[in-house]
């Protein structure tokens, strides 16, 4: 039986199977957040999050995702649902890729041991002992995008890219590092998918030797790392973001049409 979700302005109507051919309906607040995998067939389960979102699984408008996306710096230690995380990762790997090289891998850290090893390699001990560190260290998921410059050099050495002017060039001679661009695309798509999944995220740079980090996490040392993304359920009362104190530049000031 195919069941559709009906989203109303103030309520969500969730169809619940109560028998072989009978359905009953339960109304739920639209500002609540759900994932279909967490809803038993007979008793829908309400899960509230720190930030109000519409029903997970119902289509969220792209403009809503873009407007709601922000960086969170403090998280609870509540685990991220595996189905939600898998959906987020599937969305992230569909980011644009130069020459469709697909030279960006995602290292996903979810166990306490793996995350502790990451933080020991990616941050300074003095920071981890500071007052703001616990909120970020609590994030139950850390994703590290890892790009392979050699994969792009190999791809642009193929016959169909002969006219690019990049064939035979060492990666350190490229005018634009396509692997960094692609990794940035993956990060942005990851952040948007996290927002669509009713979670919070923070992209942050690594404070430490990237080669040692890669080696410590079992990744090839010659790869490129642009930073990492912490993902989880946002906690209340975390450190404020720059966007809270700095106004957004108006579109008319940022966009230049036909001429600067």
The helicity comes to: 25-40%
Tell me the number of strands.
8
**What's the Cα radius of gyration?**
22 Å
Indicate the low-confidence ranges by residue numbers: 1-57
Shape: globular
Average pLDDT confidence is: 82
The CATH class of the largest domain, by name, is Alpha Beta
Annotated CATH architecture of the largest domain: 3-Layer(aba) Sandwich
SSE series:
EEEHHEHHHEHHEHEEH
Helix- and strand-based class?
Answer: alpha+beta
Taking the alpha carbons of the first and last residues, their distance comes to 57 Å
Q: Major beta sheet, specifics?
A: 5 strands, antiparallel
CATH superfamily of the largest domain: NADH Oxidase
Q: Can you offer a commentary on this structure?
A:
- The chain is an alpha+beta fold and 260 residues long.
- It has helices at residues 62-68, 82-92, 112-122, 125-128, 133-137, 149-155, 178-196, 210-216, 251-254, and strands spanning 6-7, 11-17, 23-29, 104-109, 141-147, 200-204, 224-225, 228-232.
- 28% of the residues are buried.
- The protein is globular.
- Helix 2 (82-92) runs antiparallel to helix 7 (178-196).
- The chain contains nine helices and eight strands.
- Strands 4, 5, 6, 7 and 8 form a five-stranded antiparallel sheet that branches. It has a three-stranded antiparallel sheet with strand order 1-2-3, with no helix packed on it.
- Mean pLDDT is 82; it is low at 1-57.
- The protein has two domains: 6-60, no CATH class; 64-244, NADH Oxidase (3-Layer(aba) Sandwich).
